[in-house]
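Schema walkthrough. Field components (list of strings):
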Amino acid sequence: MFKSFSKIVLRNMWRYKGYTLLNVVGMAIGIAAMVWGYQTYRYSFSFDNFHKDRDNVYRGLTYKEGADGVKGVFPMAAVKQAQNDFSGIEEAVRYLSRGLNVKYDKNEPFAERAHFTDPAFFELFNFPLVAGSGNIADKNVVLITERTAKKYFGNEDPLGKPLIFYSGDSYALPLTVTGVLKDVPVNSTIQFDFITNFENFLRGNGSRVAPDDWTLMMDAAFFKIPNPADAQRLAKEFDKYISVQQKAREDWKAAGFKLISLPENAAMTNLSNNNLGERIEDSATYGPFVLALLIFLSACLNFSNTSVSRANRRLKEMGMRKVMGSSQRQLILQMLLECGFVVVLAVLLSTLLNYWWLPAFNQMFNGVKVTADYFNDMSLLLFMAVAVVITTLLAGAYPAFYISRFNPSTIFRGTVKFGGTNLFSRIMLGLQVSIAMITVVAGIGFARNAEFQKNYDYGYNIENTIGVIVFDTTSFPAFKNEIAAIPQVTALAGTRNHIGYGSRSVVAEAEGKKGETNYLEIGNDYVKTMNLKIAEGRGFDTQMEGDYDHSILITQNLAANYGWKDKEALDKKIFIDSMHYSVIGILKDFHLDQLFDPLEPVVLKLAKENRYQFLVIQSKLSDLETVYSKTRDAWKKVFPMKPFAGFYQNEIKAEAYQVTKSIAKIFTWFAIISILLTATGLFALVSLTVLKKTKEIALRKVVGAKPRDILVLINRGYFWIFLLASAIGCYGGYSLTRLLLDMIFGVNAGIEVSTLIRSAIVLFVIAGITSGIKVWQAIRANPAKNLRAE
Amino acid sequence: MLELKGIYKWVNTGNNRVFLLKDVDLSVQPGEFISIMGPSGSGKSTLLNVIGMLDTFDQGEYNFLHEPVHKLKEKQRSSLYKQYIGFVFQAYHLIDELTVYENIETPLIYQDIKTSERKAMVADVLDRFQIVGKKDLFPTQLSGGQQQLVGIARALIARPKLLLADEPTGNLNSKQGEEIMGLFKQLNDEGMTIIQVTHSEKNAAYGSRIINLLDGMVAR
Ligand SMILES: Nc1ncnc2c1ncn2[C@@H]1O[C@H](COP(=O)(O)OP(=O)(O)OP(=O)(O)O)[C@@H](O)[C@H]1O
Ligand SMILES: [Mg+2]
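Field assembly_structure (string):
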């Protein structure tokens, strides 16, 4: 029986190559998309899943007084003390990083981030060793990852090689590479390239850290707690440290602590003050899944629709089989088998599609590495198997049950009211239209957002500015003089903090209201160089000694937070870090970070030159590249030992722009696919209508119907469903795109009516062309011939 | 062989009940060759389909080989039908995607007959109808007469007791028609019970009895 079925199936598939190809390709795209969505989802929740003891390892978090939510940092002294003070902690591990220059022998130095931790780190976490020893108890050693070994030593054996870690004149640390670790997986919240003993950590001025230093905050503190029931109690007991911590850090007062297990840590997103990595965001976790589901549904609907509309031809065979003794069950089985064939082919094709698509997707976004190991991943295989079954049922069940239920005498009498144009098919078409609409709206919406972000006014001079990170405050003046001598430079300023390159978050209190705000310490020409606009009051004046200590500039956004309008804010007192400042000027709002973050309030304070860490340089746009290379030359002259860390300010735009552009690209592709699917579905239905109405059309033409009447006659059944589905799709596309935009970008273009109108036009034009072709044929057909054929 | 008693079949159109069959009584003995005649639309096909269990009826009794068909479940009816009845159509109704050989073989597949046995049975029939040379062709590659031959071969392959034919020569020219009727005669001589629907007196003459239908009723 199976053999006979298979024969028919294959012959049918071959005879209708066009349809088969269309269905296989459509399904393949749907299934590939599903695998992509599923793997992306799994990837997102795979973070840190490779640590054996993950359920017993906890991360310490700190509540900050006056601030919302919990913070990722943890006071250093508390880590080791807690292990002694309280029961239930088996290990306590400090983990901290800092930027350092690293140099091997006479080679070019690199600016790197080195990590410092306690030896027990490797007992808590699973970062496998490739060569050498994994012990960092010895303070003279450093462990590096494979890719770092490659970067510094090429093909030489890294073991035993010396590396110098240095910063300024006060800090130089020669360490020996004694172990090479496997590269840290992308789905790890703990990321490092160099890791060494915690004792090697030195402050900026080269001083060591005392073990009971309460001022220093860890990137992360880890505790091994064998009995998870202890975690909550311990977090409470940590409260004992609040007073001593607060005394040490007036500017950053702890208000409490929290312990979360590694899996909880891995599941978190948007933890503030978090110096570890995070899983990919919810939008990126669920977005692909939803999108994939839509495409998949559309492909299934298409398959279903084309099968039903073609079923007219199959009907005779079904009747015949019944006459020959087939039961309905066997017929259903046969139809599902046919469908299964297509699905299996589609699955095979989908693996090829993903072979190309997953890497392309990974390239579009940072920190995403979605893969599909079709041969070894049991969950994936199971998922695929379930997908085959569900797809077969979803796409094949309706035609199978529908076609098989007629009794042969009805079929042979030829009076079967045949489907394709019935309500069910039309609803399915409607669904496809809605899905297509959603993807089109999203595609156009994100493309518009990309445009919007490209032209977004950040509120400062983002295009003709370059910056250099100069950690060495002592040599700052020499370097600055070199740059000032470059003729094309139109303005320059040193600064402690710089827009887009990290700022401190502080709690600011005024008129009884507390709130978090960003805090920039800037140099005296910074406002001018960056083209920040003063709305009210004045800028900093170095002649006024008080400006260094008591004056601040605030943004309009911050003023609004306190309910101050226009000039009202001037001379107001704001309490920050246990100090009172008075507002001397109000700046127009500017965007402090990438467009992922919303516009946030900013406080600016004047810093003395000995605190400068950045030099920002302005020139005409046409001179910018020249200035950049001259700056690098100057750097080489002044700091021959240090890697050059310069940047174009507009690089800030790049990531958000790339993300929105990538999403736009994905949606555009999916929009094209879902439109094609919808168009073929529509074409199949219109063809069937024309087929069914051949005689009627011919008769009407004979009695003088105009082409318009024929058009109406054929499309009457679809028009309203199309309109309704488009409206639903518009709304769905609007909501989905808005949701995604808001999830991803703090600042975005939103969705305009014009986007919806454009999407509708795209869809209607394509639908018009699709059904138009068929209608045109019908109108042109010779009525006499069609009547004769009946 | 079979017995119809007071068979009614109707369809409701709006408030009207249209009778397709009205109080039909018929009894058929094994080995009979019956021709059903009547004007177009008189219900001949309907009656044949009811006899062949391809269609249901609304009232009356139908006993087939002492089984009360009107009381049987769909499944039992279908197995009865599978085993004892072969059907031949005016329009042949072969499956276009299957070869001659495969078309003839299909009913056996539905009866779960083993491959080796199937081969023998199909070879037998092909031989008998002298279409061995055509066995790998598809229906569309055959003439009407040849297609009908295949249709008959297929109806007979499972060795039914009753052969039903709805205008089997309707689409054929007279020479082809005569051949088919000759074949029927021969089958009947070998003991096969046959009921055919025909418009042709000449074809009816091959049979042993004629039943005239008029407006769904047997004319007496
Ligand atoms: N299920 C049904 N619903 C409605 N009308 C039906 C149905 N089945 C048959 N008819 C009608 O009943 C009448 C008898 O049909 P049937 O096919 O039995 O006629 P026939 O005697 O075989 O005619 P012909 O010689 O043209 O083949 C016809 O008018 C047909 O249209
Ligand atoms: Mg008839």
